[in-house]
């Protein structure tokens, strides 16, 4: 990548960040100021109604409540203790570590807990990376098998290969969005009693591993069921695996298009070097004829059934089962036509320019 291209991209990202900062400042700052004014008014009203309470004691109470909230204690709870570090919650917390989501609703506060969290993170993230790759591999294979059936049906209808490619790509994306986005949105809306927007906000922020932590599944009454949070984590696992598969597929498509564009530019440059005349075109044609023959399978750019999603992963089964080659057939196709040879007993008669001259007719017998 050229330095000018890097600078152009950097400027674009900085402008995007500045645009986002202006929008969030305009939307969120007035809301924050409004809540601050409400807090001050409520505090003043409380001190006016209960004159026996000292303002300093009230400030100390507020500090204690804020600290309790920071360690995960619900200030609205009664005298009955309910820990935020039960087995299900701790499992979900470990899941947010290895997935790099990190909601932040609970976090270790003790010295030994923070030290263990450092070591746990350094080992857990690479381990989860292997799991994510394996899950994406098998998920991509399942998607390919499903899409291949649709492709076979479209091929029977004699649909254009380009249209088939576009249709199957759109279907694969829509299928994943339904399974991992739209259905979870409805489930969280029902179970967590969120609005549709809040549920969609949580799903997108989670699957993009942003994880603000303002909305976390299981923090309400639904979290009382010990199976709920582990089930949410498995949804996160397969949702991330799906998006990794899709991003990998898109990246490979871009790579294929980039290589094709570079090849076309190279041919154009060679034609221009020949002055755009027939000489330059003949040069390109000669290079094509003398080029090393490529593998007849790999030289076909996404033209067989199921290959639209064959690049979702780089696994060995991406191409297996899709093509069956006949070695004898390939040998017959790749055989060069034999040139006629003259008899070794008869000398070749060549013209001065190197062309073979026809033999002189035999002299008649007298």
Automatic annotation (TrEMBL):
User: How does the entry describe its membrane topology?
Assistant: Multi-pass membrane protein
Q: Which residues form the Potassium channel domain?
A: 79-137, 177-254
Q: Where in the cell is it found?
A: Cell membrane
Name the Pfam families on file. Ion_trans_2
Positions with biased composition (Basic and acidic residues): 323-336
Name one cellular component (GO) term: plasma membrane
Which stretches are transmembrane? 7-27, 85-103, 115-135, 163-187, 194-212, 232-255
One GO BP on record is: stabilization of membrane potential
UniProt keywords, alphabetically? Cell membrane, Disulfide bond, Ion channel, Ion transport, Membrane, Potassium, Transmembrane, Transmembrane helix, Transport
- A GO MF term: outward rectifier potassium channel activity
Q: Which InterPro entries match?
A: 2pore_dom_K_chnl, 2pore_dom_K_chnl_TREK, K_chnl_dom
Catalysed reaction per UniProt?
Answer: Cs(+)(in) = Cs(+)(out); Rb(+)(in) = Rb(+)(out); K(+)(in) = K(+)(out)
Outline the segment boundaries, as ranges, of region: Disordered: 323-366
- State the similarity comment: Belongs to the two pore domain potassium channel (TC 1.A.1.8) family.
What is the protein's given name?
Potassium two pore domain channel subfamily K member 4
> To which species is this protein native?
Cyprinus carpio (Common carp)
């Amino acid at each position: 990548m050229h330095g000018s291209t890097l600078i152009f991209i950097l400027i674009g990202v900085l402008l995007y960040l500045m645009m986002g900062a202006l929008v969030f400042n305009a939307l969120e700052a007035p809301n924050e100021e409004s809540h601050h004014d409400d807090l001050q008014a409520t505090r003043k009203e409380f001190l006016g109604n209960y004159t026996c309470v000292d303002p300093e004691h009230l400030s100390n109470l507020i500090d204690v409540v804020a600290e309790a909230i920071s360690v995960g204690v619900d200030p609205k709870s009664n005298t009955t203790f309910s820990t935020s570090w039960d087995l299900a919650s701790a499992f979900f917390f470990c899941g947010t570590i290895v997935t790099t989501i990190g909601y932040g609703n609970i976090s270790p506060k003790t010295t030994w807990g923070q030290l263990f969290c450092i070591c746990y993170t350094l080992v857990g993230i690479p381990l989860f990376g292997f799991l994510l790759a394996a899950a994406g591999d098998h998920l991509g294979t399942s998607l390919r098998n499903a899409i291949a059936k649709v492709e076979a049906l479209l091929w029977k209808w004699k649909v254009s290969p380009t249209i088939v490619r576009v249709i199957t790509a759109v279907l694969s994306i829509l299928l994943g969005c339904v399974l991992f986005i739209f259905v979870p949105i409805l489930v969280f809306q029902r179970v967590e009693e969120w609005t549709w927007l809040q549920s969609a906000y949580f799903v997108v922020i989670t699957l993009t591993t942003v994880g603000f932590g303002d909305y976390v599944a299981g923090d309400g009454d639904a979290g009382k069921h010990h199976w709920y949070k582990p089930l949410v984590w498995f949804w996160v696992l397969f949702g991330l695996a799906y998006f990794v598969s899709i991003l990998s597929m898109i990246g490979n498509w871009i790579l294929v298009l980039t290589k094709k564009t570079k090849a076309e530019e190279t041919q154009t440059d060679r034609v221009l070097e020949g002055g755009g005349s027939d000489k330059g075109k003949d040069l390109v044609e000669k290079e094509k004829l003398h080029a090393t023959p490529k593998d007849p399978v790999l030289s076909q750019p996404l033209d067989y059934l199921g290959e639209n999603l064959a690049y979702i992963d780089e696994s060995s089964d991406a191409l297996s089962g899709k093509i069956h080659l006949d070695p004898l057939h390939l040998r017959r196709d790749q055989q060069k036509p034999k040139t006629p040879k003259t008899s070794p007993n008869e000398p070749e008669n060549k013209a001065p320019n190197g062309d073979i001259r026809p033999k002189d007719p035999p002299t008649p017998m007298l």
